[in-house]
Structures are given as C-alpha cells and as structure tokens.
Design brief:
Layout: E1 8-14, E2 17-25, E3 30-35, E4 56-61, H1 78-92, E5 97-102, H2 104-115, E6 120-126, H3 138-144, H4 147-153, H5 155-164, H6 170-181, E7 201-206, H7 214-223, E8 227-232, H8 239-242, H9 244-256
Parallel strand pairs: 3-4, 3-5, 5-6, 6-7, 7-8
Antiparallel strand pairs: 1-2, 2-4
Domain AB hydrolase-1: 31-137
Pfam families: Abhydrolase_1
Organism: Bowmanella yangjiangensis
C-alpha cells in the first residue's frame, strides 16, 4: 500500500487550537506516531515513510502553531505538545503505539514514554536532546536564532508555512518556540524522567550534529533500560534527511525486531 495514497488531512480542536493530523498506512496496523522538529512540520518526516513496515498505521501531526496547526494564545512547551498528542491519541482511540520523533519530536517522545510506559511500544529519537545543562553549548546557538535567520536559511519552508497555516504568525511562533528550547522547568526537557522509559529505544544522530553531542547521546544511553545508538558519519542535525539511505533501513529494522 502506498502511504501517499492513504493520506487524509484532518483537524482536532484542543484547548483553543486546531491541531492538524494525517492518517496513512495500514488502518488495521500497529500505530506509529510521527513527530517533527521545532519550526518544522510533518512534511519533513515524509522522507522516511517509504521505510516504514507495511503493518503500521502512521499518525502524523503538526505541533500547535507549526505547519497547518493554529498557534492559539497559550505558551508553547514540550509539556503542551505532549498534552495535544495525548488528546489526539485519545480521540483516535489509540491505546498502544510506537513513536518516531525528530529533534523536538524526539524530546516529546521521551516525555510520552516516561509518563506512559505501558503505552509506548518502541521509540525512535533522531537528534533529540534529553536535557539542557547550564553550560550546554547549544544554548548560545538557540538564543541567537530569530525569524529573519530562519527565513533566509529555510526560505521554502517558511513560504509554505505562510500559505498553508490557517492563521500564520511566524515571528510570534519563533519567539514561542525559542522559549520551548530554553525551558529548564518541568514543562521542558525530560531530564531524569528518561529513567522511567521502559520500551526499546533507538537513538539516531548525525556525527556532526551541533545541537546534540555524542557525549550526551552516550550519557542518555546509560540511563535508558533498552537502548541502541546509531551515529551516522558525515551528517548533521537533520540526519534523516541528509542520510535517508542509512537512516531509513535502520528505522525499518528496528521496527521489525
């Protein structure tokens, strides 16, 4: 079955926002929740869909404010994303599922697996931090990002967002997402909660990832109960897009085991 032929975009109202999601793959299959990165959309994960085993149903969504989901008035946080996902899964009647998340999507995946260890069957996190230490070098990088930089670096993605989002507010979205990235409260990174993750975890990172170091990936692996690490040479943060020929088969093998 072609995933593209089975896609249907829908909306769910959650706490003042319209959350966009798509269902694809096998309607009777095991659920696989696919989560994108910060300031991105579910479109950035499409490159991996051809590698997902045919016995999975894909649940792809846009975080609030991102892609085709509206932003609303509430502050953004990893906890807020988690609540939106929980509302969507409850709406769909999904009890058990696996998660494939990139960057912010992977961070939220760790939170989901920690809070609902009996529901998350498998977890794939791509370029996803699990904590933000006070001296983490990524802090200065994140602080320096702004809407103009993003427009220059990802012009096509921003243009698409402006046309696809029902209520586009890109400058405001960037400000709110930066607050998510720098959040050191309980609403932010999972930190020690990762020790509650009981399902098998596959970490994937590019060897030149400037946000998620190999040291941090290894430190995380030591805290996870079941963990494999795939460190991909020559690739950076968006390793799933840069090295799809490597990441795709690894993802497929993990989901089949």
């Amino acid at each position: 079955m072609s995933y593209a032929q089975n896609q249907a975009g829908r909306y769910l109202e959650v706490d003042g926002c319209r959350i966009y999601y798509e269902l694809a793959g096998n309607p009777q299959g095991k659920a696989l929740l696919i989560l994108h990165g910060g300031l991105g959309s579910s479109r950035e994960m499409a490159c991996l869909q051809a590698h997902i085993p045919a016995d999975y149903q894909l649940i792809c969504m846009d975080f609030r404010g991102h892609g085709r989901s509206t932003l609303g008035q509430q502050p953004l946080s990893y906890a807020r994303y988690q609540q939106d996902i929980e509302a969507l899964l409850n709406h769909l009647g999904v009890e058990q599922y696996s998660v494939l998340g990139f960057s912010d999507g992977g961070i939220v995946a760790y939170r989901l697996a920690a809070y609902h260890p009996g529901r998350v069957a498998r977890l794939i996190a791509i370029g996803a931090q699990w904590r933000l230490l006070p001296d983490d070098p990524s802090i200065e990088i994140l602080k320096g990002l702004n809407a103009d930089f993003w427009r220059q670096r990802f012009a096509g993605d921003v243009t698409w967002y402006q046309s696809a989002n029902p209520e586009p507010h890109f400058d405001l979205l960037v400000d709110r997402v930066k607050a998510v990235w720098l959040d050191s409260a309980e609403s932010g990174y999972p930190n020690k909660l990762v020790e509650q993750v009981s399902c098998p975890v596959l970490q994937i990172r590019g060897d030149k990832d400037f946000l998620f170091s190999l040291h941090e990936a290894c430190a995380l692996a030591e805290r996870l109960q079941q963990s494999d690490l795939c460190n991909v040479p020559f690739a950076s943060h968006a390793v799933h897009q840069e090295a799809q020929d490597i990441v795709g088969p690894v993802v497929k093998r993990f989901l089949l085991t």
